[in-house]
Structure to design on (143 residues):
C-alpha cells in the first residue's frame, strides 16, 4: 500500500525537525557552558522566557543578563525530542523542542548535579531560512 502525500510530507518534517534540533542542542548547550556571549544570537528579539517559574519579559536583554549573572555551569543533555509545528506557508515550520538532562553549577568537582527540563519553541529566522531562533523557553530544575 502506498503512503499518502500528507504522510510523506509529515515524515519529511519530522526528519527535518529532528536534524535541526540535534544541531541546535549541540551548539546551544556548548555555548551555554563555554561561550555565553553568543547566547543572545539564539533568541528572537521578543522571546518569552520562563526560568524556574519566573517570567522574563525583556526578551534578548533579559537573556543576556540571566546568562552573564548565572554561575559557571556544566550541562549534560540526556535526551531531547523535536516535533514540527504547523508550517507557516513559506515552506518552513516551527519546532517544539524538549530537552532533559543534568546541570552542575560551579567549578567544584564534587558539586551536586540537578536535573533540568526545558521546553523550547524554535521559529525560523526570517533573515536566514536554515537558522532557528528561540521564541519561547521554559526552564525548570528538578530537585
Amino acid at each position: 500500500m502506498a503512503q499518502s502525500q500528507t504522510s510523506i510530507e509529515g515524515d519529511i518534517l519530522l526528519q527535518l525537525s529532528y536534524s535541526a534540533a540535534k544541531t541546535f542542542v549541540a551548539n546551544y548547550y556548548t555555548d551555554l557552558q563555554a561561550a555565553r556571549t553568543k547566547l543572545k544570537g539564539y533568541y528572537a528579539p521578543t522571546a518569552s522566557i520562563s526560568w524556574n517559574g519566573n517570567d522574563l519579559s525583556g526578551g534578548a536583554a533579559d537573556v543576556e543578563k540571566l546568562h552573564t549573572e548565572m554561575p559557571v555551569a556544566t550541562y549534560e543533555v540526556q535526551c531531547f525530542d523535536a516535533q514540527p509545528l504547523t508550517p507557516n506557508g513559506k515552506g518552513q515550520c516551527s519546532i517544539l523542542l524538549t530537552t532533559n538532562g543534568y546541570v552542575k553549577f560551579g567549578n567544584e568537582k564534587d558539586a551536586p548535579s540537578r536535573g533540568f527540563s526545558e521546553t523550547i519553541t524554535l521559529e525560523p529566522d526570517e533573515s536566514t531560512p536554515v537558522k532557528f531562533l528561540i521564541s519561547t523557553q521554559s526552564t525548570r530544575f528538578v530537585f
